[in-house]
Write a structure and sequence with these properties.
This protein is α/β, with parallel strands linked by helices. The chain has two domains: 63-145 and 283-347, 3-Layer(aba) Sandwich (D-Maltodextrin-Binding Protein, domain 2), CATH 3.40.190.10; 148-267, Glycine betaine-binding periplasmic protein, domain 2 (D-Maltodextrin-Binding Protein, domain 2), CATH 3.40.190. It contains 14 helices and ten strands. The chain has helices spanning 6-31, 70-87, 98-108, 123-131, 169-175, 192-203, 218-230, 244-248, 261-267, 291-296, 298-306, 311-321, 328-338, 340-343, and strands at 63-66, 92-95, 113-118, 135-140, 148-153, 182-185, 210-213, 235-240, 251-253, 285-290. β1, α2 (70-87) and β2 form a beta-alpha-beta unit. α2 crosses α13 (328-338) and α3 packs parallel to α4 (123-131). The protein is elongated.
């Protein structure tokens, strides 16, 4: 990809032209004096050449942390390309890890950007980083905050007669399906979500209407889901986002109502005497910026304050990444080339 550097070119022209123009001005002023006139008295004023504007992306390396999971890889590659093309940066990706990246940003200001920081997963480290005042959380990485929930295949959506919801499942599964009971594909039994799902099934009155399936691992979970869709089976599943499966196999999220902290405390226990409905808790997933970006590259900081990705869009990108031969770099190139209608709004001007 070729990158435009109009600002750099302008800086070079100013550096080359500035002193020469200042000298010509002084000579012309002397030549304008009448012949025989006494030389003008020195005024003591110093003729200053224009100051060189700062580089558009600051004087420090504009490094972007590329974490080891696919959505974070894509965000890092996408932002790198936009910064280089639109802001004349020399941005580059560097390997990242949640705790190590947060700690490094708080002590050295590098990397400059972490586009997918799951704050609640490293709360102690993150809180210590924020206390250094060298890092800021600038915007949510994704437009939605609830990353876990229940879903149904898209072909079941019409049976709800309105927006699909967990509260409507009891009535729907009692009257509208030929399977009795339908399968509820949960997560593996040794995951925390399995306990929550068991209790939520009771809370929504579904104990006798679903057959709970807890796969041995993530691979079996995905295989069961794909098989059920291929048979157009009516079923309910638990899943999380961002994730390719939800886009590739076309699922609809169920509205699980409001989040209830007290209810969730009970739902998370093996023995919950009186389970009550609740949505899953929201996750804090943010873009983190080193403080120096705000002072040295304010236009870049403003860009990241607007750079929130719709989670459905990320699910689609992850689906593309699962295609044979696909790479994070290639998918990022395609996104930047074809979705200016989306990322153009991050620039702060009409796309």
């Amino acid at each position: 990809m070729r990158f435009r550097h109009p600002v750099f070119a302008g800086l070079m022209l100013a550096l080359l032209a500035g002193p020469a123009l200042a000298q010509i001005t002084v000579l012309d002023s002397a030549q304008d004096q009448p012949q025989g006139a006494a030389p003008a008295e020195p005024t003591g004023e110093v003729v200053e050449t224009p100051a060189t504007p700062p580089p558009p992306c600051g004087n420090q390396p504009m490094t972007i942390a590329r974490m080891s999971w696919p959505s974070a890889e894509l965000l890092a590659e996408i932002h790198t390309r936009i910064l280089n093309a639109e802001f004349a940066c020399d941005a580059r990706v560097v390997p990242g890890d949640l705790a190590a990246t947060a700690s490094s940003m708080g002590s050295t200001g590098q990397p400059a950007v972490a586009p997918e920081m799951w704050v609640t997963r490293i709360a102690a480290v993150w809180n210590g980083t924020i206390e250094t005042q060298m890092v800021r959380s600038v915007a949510p990485s994704y437009a939605e905050a609830t990353m876990e929930g229940w879903f149904v295949p898209a072909y079941m959506e019409g049976a709800f007669g309105g927006p699909p919801s967990a509260a409507a499942l009891q009535s729907l599964l009692s009257t509208e399906t030929s399977e009795s009971p339908v399968r509820f594909i949960s997560c593996p039994a040794d995951w925390a979500c399995s306990v929550i799902n068991r209790n939520l099934i009771a809370a929504y009155g579904l104990t006798n209407l679903v057959q709970l399936v807890e796969p041995a691992n993530r691979f079996e979970m995905d295989a069961l889901i794909a098989e059920a869709v291929s048979r157009r089976e009516n079923f309910v599943l638990y899943y999380w986002q961002p994730n390719a499966v939800l886009a590739q196999l076309d699922f609809r999220a169920l509205d699980m109502g409001a989040y209830d902290d007290e209810a969730m405390k009970c739902l998370a226990r093996l023995e919950c005497a009186a389970p009550k409905p609740s949505s899953f808790p929201a996750e804090t997933v943010v873009t983190a910026l080193a403080e120096w970006v705000f002072t040295e590259a304010p236009t870049v900081a403003s860009y990241f304050q607007r750079a929130t990705m719709p989670i459905a869009e990320m699910n689609t990108l992850l689906g593309q990444l699962n295609e044979p031969g696909a790479t994070a770099e290639g998918i990022a190139e395609r996104f930047v080339a074809t979705r200016r209608d989306l990322w153009g709004t991050w620039l702060g001007a009409p796309p």
